[in-house]
Amino acid sequence: MILYNSPQHFRSLLGVLGLWMYSAFNYYLIGYYVKYFPGDVFDNFMMMTIAEVIAPIVLFMVQGRYVTKIVLRYLLAGASFTSLIYIIN
Known about the structure:
Elements: H1 2-5, H2 7-33, H3 41-65, H4 68-88
């Protein structure tokens, strides 16, 4: 009933669902295409696993110190910048 009474909650729900679908698709797609990355498959999976262990720890430490809205802006900007560097190279 809250979603029907408040359009702001409904828009927030749609936004969160869209972000979840986007991130889940990218997460599983990267895992699927790891075998095509240059180098040894086992080394690539090990590096991907290490990154998956380190990322939540770093994110927890950063979000504990700063406001979440500001942190998300900088994380998105950093991810965009690194993806542009990857595309250029």
